[in-house]
Amino acid sequence: MKNSESTNELVIELTYKYIREIIIDTRESLEMKRYQLADELDTQPSTALRYEKGTYVMNIPLFMRICFILEISPQEVFNTAYTKAKAEIKKKKSKAKN
């Protein structure tokens, strides 16, 4: 795999990790329990847990539904997660050079 391809994969992986963290943090700040989110999604709490942990991958419509339930902007969630991912990679590259 080329270096740029591995970097792209890392950006995707980290962005998804940060999206999940933002969703969890927002849900918890709203004092919403996982089972309540699951009820809103018409699914089981164990399924909601798998989405939050990344065991199950969220598709775009599901991601948007979760954002709407939590009353957060999907665009802002994505932008924040993407920015954090890029910053983390830059930091790792900087440390590797030193």
Question: What's the topology here?
Answer:
Elements: H1 3-29, H2 34-41, H3 45-53, H4 60-70, H5 74-97
Helix pairs in contact: 1-5, 2-3
Kindly list the characteristics that best describe this protein.
98 residues, 434 Repressor (Amino-terminal Domain), 81% helix
Q: Can you describe what's shown?
A:
There is one protein chain. By secondary structure, the chain is mostly helical. It has a single domain (3-87), classed as 434 Repressor (Amino-terminal Domain) (Orthogonal Bundle). Helix content is 81%, strand content 0%. The protein contains 5 helices and no strands. It has helices at residues 3-29, 34-41, 45-53, 60-70, 74-97. Helix 1 packs across helix 5 (74-97). The mean pLDDT is 93.
What's the level 1 CATH class? Answer: Mainly Alpha
Would you identify the CATH H-level superfamily?
A: lambda repressor-like DNA-binding domains
Shape: elongated
The N- to C-terminal Cα distance equals 24 Å
Query: What is the assembly state of the chains in this entry?
Result: single chain
Unreliable residue stretches: none
Q: What is the N-to-C succession of helices and strands?
A: HHHHH
Largest sheet: none
CATH hierarchy: architecture: Orthogonal Bundle
CATH topology name, in short, is: 434 Repressor (Amino-terminal Domain)
Number of spatially distinct domains: 1
- Give the count of helical stretches: 5
Number of strands: 0
Give a nutshell description of this structure.
The protein has 98 residues and is mainly α. It is built from five helices and no strands. It has a single domain (3-87), classed as lambda repressor-like DNA-binding domains (434 Repressor (Amino-terminal Domain)), CATH 1.10.260.40.
